[in-house]
Amino acid sequence: MSWFRNITKKRIITFIAAMFGILLFFFFGMTFVAHSLLRADEPFQADAVVVLSHGTEIYFRMTEAAKLYQQGYAPNVVINGGRIHPVVKEMESKGFSREWRWDEEYHAYLQFLGISLEDVIFIQLEDPFDTWGEAALLGKRLKQMGMKNLIITTNKYHSRRAGYVWESLYEGQFNIRVVPVRSETFSPWSWWRDRRQFKWTLYEFGSWVFLLGRNLASSE
Fold first, then answer.
1. Distance between alpha carbon 164 and the CA centroid of its chain, in Å?
2. Dist CA 128 CA 134 (whole Å)
């Protein structure tokens, strides 16, 4: 019986040690993954602060852009939008029409933030629904305007991928700094505790896998 008890104790100790190791790996591994999504450059004197468009998150990004604008880092704020869902396009072909402009939704908010609408450049992009497509079309427009130095503002969890996409597409053509929403609550130390942050992190990790896979396929 003593031999059995000794074996049982060893198994229990081994099991506890294994569980502890798994928990440490999960904590540090997942924290590393979350940290790897973040990029925060020092702002510099730029031609414009570019607000990347993404649903309701755009309001956080416009708020950050307003701070940079008021601090004198850029004389202009660029906001793109006007995505048209394929269903709406189909309805438009059948006679449906909208009497409002897509950017009108943001006017009052931008003015409340202290940004003069004369300094806001609204650019309509109907078709892109991902970061790569947005950068490809928006960057082309900004080049046509003669812009060279850009501050990209987006959410923290999206910051490194946004910078990677813009620098991949426009290497040597733009000077890019990524300044994420500094007041955002996203935390790489505890993202799994919050349902929203958990969703952001998993989505972003999946987007990285897709992006790198696409780049690898296109290089072959």
1. 11
2. 5
